[in-house]
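Give me structure tokens for this 178-residue protein.
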Amino acid sequence: MKKLAVYFIFQLLIICPEILCTSVFIALHNLFIPTDTYTPHNLISSCSPAEYFVIELSNILLGLFLLWKISEILRQCIDYLKILTFLQLLLPLIAPVFLNVIISLQKKPEAVLALSIIYWIICIGSYLLFLRAVRSLAQLHREYLQKKMEIELMKKQINDSVQLSNEYASLRKWNHDI
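Here you go.
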């Protein structure tokens, strides 16, 4: 249940930037270029591929910014996070957005249907990859904590050894004086 909740939080991090960036783009475009008025209903069909690319790029950047700011999990595990695990966590954020852009730019209904099927396959695959990354992250966290405990134990043993050595030197000095 926790993994599913984390996945839906990640999905929320996808939806919020999309709504925000699209709304901001529509407001700015309608303010500065009032001849071509965009609405959420006609945005995809009316805007140029370059404009749509700007919208989707801002979606991704804002999504990554929110992920960086909100996700406490990544801030806690940055010491031991591997790049492959990080990419597995980000793929569910990025892959559906890119495929959505490709689908929206298609004009043929057959291509849209085929890409929609691929979209759902990629979404399911991304979810499975995300679960694998969460398991890997948990394993890395356990290994990190174990190594951290080993280091603390070694520091304690070294400290105890130094104290014991000092006590032994003190005892030898006392025996010598006696």
